[in-house]
Amino acid sequence: MFEVQDKGDKKIVFVKGEVNAQTGSELKKNILELFNSTDSVVLSFKGVVYMNSSGLREIIDLLKSTNKIKKNLMLCEMSADIREMFTFTGLDKVFKIFDTQAQALG
Asked: How many domains does the chain have?
């Protein structure tokens, strides 16, 4: 479902497959655990083939939790469909979204 790589002081999470209520909940739990060892996590959506509104809700909940613990969550490499979902809902103004992994890593 996902793979984690260390990139200096940040971790990149490569999300794969579908993001729905079940997979999104598991993803959220695992990413919150990653924040025990880093201040910044980049979520790469390159391998995501589908995300529904339940999956989107889990990503929103993840951002809320991340903000509470004052950590940094960034998103990158979204397909046009997923990017459109974030833009249509106005979430592109709330999340830090980058076109490429390199931009997210800064």
From this structure: 1
Q: How far apart are CA 93 and CA 34, in angstroms?
A: 24
The span from the first CA to the last CA of the chain, in angstroms, equals 25
* Best CA proximity match to 35, nearest among 82, 71, 81, 86: 71
Q: How far is CA 72 from the centre of its chain?
A: 11
DSSP result, 14-39: EEEEEE-HHHHHHHHHHHHHHTTT-S
Domain span including residue 61:
2-105
Residue 1 pLDDT: 81
Per residue in 39-93, pLDDT (tens digit) is 999 999 999 999 999 999 999 999 999 999 999 999 999 999 999 999 999 999 9
